[in-house]
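Re: FE2/S2 (inorganic) cluster structure - here you go.
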Amino acid sequence: MILARDAIRFWRNGQPIEVSGFHPRTTLLDYLRLQERRVGTKEGCAEGDCGACTIALGRLKDGRVHYEPVNACILLLGQVDGAEVVTVEDLAKSGELHPVQSAMVAHHGSQCGFCTPGIVMSLFTLYHEAERPLGRDGINDALAGNLCRCTGYRPIVDAALEACSGKPDDLFAEANGATARGLAAMADGQDLVVGSEAHFFAAPASEASLAALYDQHPDATLVAGCTDVGLWITKGMAELEKIIWLGRVSGLDQIEDTADALTIGATATHAAAYSSLASIDPDLGELMRRFGSVQVRASGTVGGNIANGSPIGDLAPALIALGSKLELRKGESTRVIPLDTFFIAYRKQDRQPGEFVRRVTVPKLNSNEVFRAYKVSKRFDEDISAVMGAFKLRLDGRRIAEARIAFGGMAGIPKRAMETEKALTGISLDDPSSWGDAMAAIARDYQPLDDHRASAVYRATVARNLVFKALSETASGETGATRIIGRREALAAAE
Ligand SMILES: Cc1cc2nc3c(=O)[nH]c(=O)nc-3n(C[C@H](O)[C@H](O)[C@H](O)COP(=O)(O)OP(=O)(O)OC[C@H]3O[C@@H](n4cnc5c(N)ncnc54)[C@H](O)[C@@H]3O)c2cc1C
Ligand code: FES
Ligand code: FES
């Protein structure tokens, strides 16, 4: 075992706190409720869906503390190392409610109150971070991960509009400088290991330490954002004894944006990658807007979404269609593979014991290339896709010179539609009568899943229709007739 710090450190109510000797799979919510005995933060679903457990994490960026909401139920206690932890109990100042809390009272934003602490904490982060002026759409997006079963959202949104009308002026704005200095002092760049050889929570600080530790303990579970692994713990009761958290590995979250490609480090969160992905194509931005919730995007990572290998993950099909490459590392060696070859069979990826995902490189679009991505799910907000289709078409005038298509939800892995790609090559956008063969080819590419999310027949029909939709939109250059929400013309006008 490497020599390392043996306790986590975080900032809480204006001072540093050290915690050691905890079980590696202890969640932050259990720590808050069972150790601190601060029970304002609620447990509803214990799977990241309802937002009742929302707390704020403050992290240092560009010399200032920035606040993000996270779901404490699926965040490990060890993951707060180096951050400020803010819960609903901390907001009032000398007995006076926080502006967000006062606005919730004034607008009758609470009935049974179970969701209220989580909603207040989501609004607290919005109060600190949202660009002004803030409209209803922005607030709706911010609350997509907070379920209120009784009040209805109008009074809550009204409260948010009022609270976020001016500049942040609360305890946390006043203390930002002091907190930033406190967080900077805690950032020691040391490896962290709480536990023993058999049973630990480790957070290496460098890639070299990570590579060495994982090589030594290939049976350990890697955790990035924990938005998938968290559910193995709370729902699957998984007995994870060795956890390696990637969130402190210096540089692994780096995003490089060049003229030709975007390279996203494995631990870049969805929130961090959002705008870079959106700049490749508005459909990627819309996909990210609908990826989980603000809380899930604040914790969940691009590398975790890929490495997880879920057949219904959203990023893999989009990145495969764009022709992305994946870089992996084991010990001192690295290798680069086409992303589509990473997925071998259901939950089986091309990853050796002790090997981890390092980064993904996403080529940008050329002027003669068109991209479309469609997420089809039962709910608009915070839902996993039933079908996710992504298309990249290279055009030679009005003819399709090359097609690259990938779907999620249609097989045991995110998978390319090679037969459909072939059938599309050479056809004219001006001759819809020639599109039918390509639509029919979907049936040769996939034998879709049949489960509670969607039947196989539904999935096959949707996928076939998405081919038609992509062709119609490419032929017309418009989405007015094909979309109700996420119209590309509206997104372009809003920029
Ligand atoms: C409420 C909710 C909503 C969600 N909505 C969506 C959605 O809309 N679309 C979607 O696609 N997904 C969604 N998810 C799933 C999840 O958020 C994503 O898959 C997320 O990107 C996982 O990233 P993570 O960093 O949290 O992964 P983790 O949970 O930390 O890890 C996931 C898996 O990847 C492995 N792993 C992580 N990083 C690496 C690495 N660098 N190298 C090797 N292995 C690694 C872990 O060992 C684990 O097996 C949702 C989840 C929740 C709880
Ligand atoms: S308890 Fe529902 S999101 Fe955490
Ligand atoms: S006030 Fe009852 S769930 Fe929101």
